[in-house]
Write a structure and sequence with these properties.
heterodimer; A: mainly alpha; Rna Polymerase Sigma Factor, Chain: A; Arc Repressor Mutant, subunit A; 8 helices; B: mainly alpha; Serine Threonine Protein Phosphatase 5, Tetratricopeptide repeat; two-stranded antiparallel ribbon; 11 helices; 2 strands; elongated
Chain lengths: 198, 281
């Protein structure tokens, strides 16, 4: 099944049709934001990812054949861009403990000791930022962006078993972090409760 | 059994991760930022198109020259009298007899050797040199002249070099080499001031300066970004500006900036922190 209307939109946008460009932006921005935020976290890197992803989408518009919806195609393009950006950051920061990445940068929750006092959904990005980048990428690609294990293996250029292992270890690492924080958060409350009751 | 327990236990975590992949609504400022990127893309596309047509023109011109040489080369060579590398100057050639000289004279061209004065004891007489015919000179085909030292022609494109510079600066930042990182961002801004990378680098520079405790420099960087109009990193730039003003002790300006920030980005994750700075908590 081809997406003829999407192909037409892409062609018009590639030729510089302002109306088509406007519609294109409205359609591709949400998936670009979602992908960048999922892979790179809610950081300035994610904004870079959106910008670079959009550039790449615009660059490759001419090669869009309508085999998937425009949004799905943009997601694929953005995933590759963001993974490359993430790998680039990791390569440049080699030797630095993942928990220390970005230390000292403004807006980095871990550097500012952001308290975990909201629901899990609000904090999951902070937890993801604290596990290894390889595990984070595997978890996000699989659970947030719906890629299958073999697809992830191809995207990351690693064996399928490696992806499975990263998924398993990533889940375990997240679970431990959350359990540890819950324990820390609950103990003073328990003490206060005990005082209040006495 | 254990796996099933794990799945049940991890269900909220996996659901939260799944939420990350959901498309959110596009805000007006997101669209504005994307339009800035689109503008950058158009400019870059025009530039690439111009460079391509210039390169194509150059190649076409070179091809035309080669074709012309192949087609008209022999005729041209005949016209200018070049034959196998020897320039025949028959129109000037005269025989030695006509000139009353000898073969040596022809070789010696214009200078006739003087008679040694001491052998005759007479005053040396100046013999005017006979008019010599132009010697037949074998013209060796020109050896290729040493080409003047050229500058490297593999100048990197604006895009690649700007991204490389950004990557280098980012690497230094991640390696916590903040001084060199700031210098690298400055270099990028100076070399490619209009690139998309430079826009992002301005805010990164501000962050680095802030981390180094150079709030004044940081403020300058954030202001520079915000003066460039709506950008993808406007939210971060505003937040950085508030922090810089706070660090400089410019409280009233900080409070004004916080109010403006709250109205512009009411859902920002930085807003509670900004308000905390203002209230001193």
């Amino acid at each position: 099944m081809t997406h003829a209307r999407d192909v037409d939109l892409a062609r018009r946008a590639a030729k510089g049709d302002a109306a088509a460009e406007g519609e294109l932006l409205r359609r591709v921005l949400p998936p670009l934001h979602a992908v960048a935020r999922a892979i790179l976290g809610a950081t300035a890197d994610a904004d870079d990812g959106v910008q670079l992803g959009l550039m790449r989408v615009l660059d490759k518009l001419g090669s869009y054949r309508g085999e998937a919806s425009l949004e799905r195609w943009c997601r694929t393009v953005a995933v590759r861009v963001c993974l490359r950006l993430s790998a680039q950051n990791r390569r440049h920061a080699h030797g630095i403990d993942p928990e220390d990445e970005g230390v000292g940068l403004v807006g980095d929750a871990s550097a500012e000791g952001g308290a975990i006092d909201e629901g899990l959904a609000a904090d999951i990005e902070q937890y993801l930022a604290r596990i290894s980048a390889a595990q984070r990428e595997a978890l996000v690609l699989h659970h947030a962006l719906d890629y299958s294990v073999p697809e992830i293996a191809e995207l990351l250029g690693v064996p399928v078993d490696t992806v499975k292992s990263r998924l398993a270890f990533g889940r375990r690492a997240l679970r431990r972090l959350i359990q540890r924080d819950l324990t820390v958060a609950e103990s003073p409350r328990a003490k206060r409760g005990a005082h209040g009751g006495g | 059994m254990v796996a099933a327990d794990d799945d049940r236990e991890d269900a909220p975590i996996l659901a939260a991760i799944a939420d990350l992949g959901r498309d959110g609504p596009v805000r007006t400022d997101d669209l504005a930022r994307a339009r800035v990127t689109l503008g950058e893309f158009r400019r870059r596309r025009r530039k690439v198109a111009m460079m391509r047509s210039a390169a194509f023109g150059g190649v076409a011109l070179a091809a035309a020259l080669v074709l012309a040489l192949v087609r008209f080369g022999p005729e041209l060579r005949a016209q200018i009298g070049v034959d196998d590398g020897v320039l025949s100057q028959s129109e000037h050639a005269t025989t030695p007899d006509e000139q009353g000289g000898d073969a040596v004279d022809r070789v010696s061209a214009t200078v006739r050797p003087r008679e040694p004065a001491s052998t005759t004891g007479e005053a040396p007489t100046v013999v005017p040199p006979p008019i010599e015919p132009a010697p037949e000179i074998a013209i060796v085909p020109d050896a290729p002249e040493p080409a003047p030292a050229r500058k490297a022609t593999t100048k990197p494109t604006v895009q690649s070099s700007a991204s490389e510079m950004l990557a280098k600066a980012r690497a230094l930042t991640h390696a916590k080499k903040l001084g060199p990182a700031a210098a690298a961002y400055e270099a990028l801004l100076a070399a490619h001031p209009t690139s998309a990378e430079a826009r992002a680098a301005t805010v990164s520079l501000g962050r680095v300066e802030l981390t180094r405790g150079r709030a004044k420099h940081a403020l300058r960087a954030f202001d520079r970004y915000l003066q460039g109009g709506a950008g993808t990193l406007a939210e971060e730039a505003h937040w950085g500006r508030i922090q810089a003003l706070h660090a400089l002790g410019r409280k009233s300006e900080r409070d004004q900036a916080t109010t403006a920030f709250a109205s512009k980005f009411p859902g920002s994750m930085y807003l509670p922190k900004a308000k905390a700075l203002a209230t001193g908590k």
